[in-house]
C-alpha cells in the first residue's frame, strides 16, 4: 500500500509541476519589438562622417604633396638665382664653431664693441680670445654665451649662422 501511495503522489506531483511550467512557459505575451531605426540612423550618420573625413584626408595629402613639390622647385631655383627669401642672400652651412663647452674666456665690453655682424667665426674667436659655451644648435645656426668681466652675471650672447656673426647682445659687461 505504501508503494501505491508513493506512485500516486509522485504522479500527481509530476502532473502539477508540468501544469505550472506550461502556464509560465512561452505561452505568455510576446516581447515588444525593439525600434532600431534610431540606432541605424546614428550608424549611417557616423559612416557618412567617416567617409567625409577620409575625403578630407586625401585632399590634405594632395595639398601637402603639391606644397612639397613647390618647395623642391623653389629650393632648386634659389641657388641658381643667388637670392634667398625676401631678397636675402642664402647662407651656406659654414663653420659655426665647435659648439662645445667653450674655452672659459672672460670678455670685456671693449672686445664686445669690436664685433660686427657678418664677421666669421674665426674673426670673432680672434677678438674674444676663445669660444663661448654653446647654448643652442640648429641646422645652420649656433648660439654661444660668453661670460664677461663686470658684475655678477655679466655676459654676452652671440649667434652665428652659416659661419657668420648674425647677432649679438650683452648684459653688464665692463
Indicate the proportion of strand residues. Answer: 15-25%
N-C termini distance: 128 Å
Helix share, percent: 40-55%
Low-confidence stretches: 81-92
What is the overall shape? Answer: elongated
The counted number of beta strands is 5
**Which structural class matches the secondary elements?**
alpha+beta
Radius of gyration: 43 Å
How many helix segments? Answer: 4
Summarize the biggest pleated sheet. Answer: 5 strands, mixed
Series of secondary-structure elements, N-terminal to C-terminal: HHEHHEEEE
Mean pLDDT: 76
Polypeptide structure, described:
This protein has 174 residues and is an alpha+beta fold. Helices cover 47% and strands 22% of the residues. The chain is built from four helices and five strands; from the N terminus they run H-H-E-H-H-E-E-E-E. Strands 1, 2, 3, 4 and 5 form a five-stranded mixed β-sheet that branches. A hairpin with a 1-residue loop joins strand 3 and strand 4. The radius of gyration is 43 Å and the shape is elongated. The termini are far apart. Mean pLDDT is 76; it is low at 81-92.
Sequence-ordered SSE layout with sheet pairings:
Blueprint: H1 2-24, H2 37-81, E1 106-107, H3 109-114, H4 121-128, E2 133-138, E3 141-148, E4 150-161, E5 164-173
Parallel strand pairs: 1-3
Antiparallel strand pairs: 2-3, 3-4, 4-5
Descriptive labels:
5 strands, alpha+beta, five-stranded mixed β-sheet, 4 helices, 174 residues
In short:
The chain has 174 residues and is an alpha+beta fold.
Amino acid at each position: 500500500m505504501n508503494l501505491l501511495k508513493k506512485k500516486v503522489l509522485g504522479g500527481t506531483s509530476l502532473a502539477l509541476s508540468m501544469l505550472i511550467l506550461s502556464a509560465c512557459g512561452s505561452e505568455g505575451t510576446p516581447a515588444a519589438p525593439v525600434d532600431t531605426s534610431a540606432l541605424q540612423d546614428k550608424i549611417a550618420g557616423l559612416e557618412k562622417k567617416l567617409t567625409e573625413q577620409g575625403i578630407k584626408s586625401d585632399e590634405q595629402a594632395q595639398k601637402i604633396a603639391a606644397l612639397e613639390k613647390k618647395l623642391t622647385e623653389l629650393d632648386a631655383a634659389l641657388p641658381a638665382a643667388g637670392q634667398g627669401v625676401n631678397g636675402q642672400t642664402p647662407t651656406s652651412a659654414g663653420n659655426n664653431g665647435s659648439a662645445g663647452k667653450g674655452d672659459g674666456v672672460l670678455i670685456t665690453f671693449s672686445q664686445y664693441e669690436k664685433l660686427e655682424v657678418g664677421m666669421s667665426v674665426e674673426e670673432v674667436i680672434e677678438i674674444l680670445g676663445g669660444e663661448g659655451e654653446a647654448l643652442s644648435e640648429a641646422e645652420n645656426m649656433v648660439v654661444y654665451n660668453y661670460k664677461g668681466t663686470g658684475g655678477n652675471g655679466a655676459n654676452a650672447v652671440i649667434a652665428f649662422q652659416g659661419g657668420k656673426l648674425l647677432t649679438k647682445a650683452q648684459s653688464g659687461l665692463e
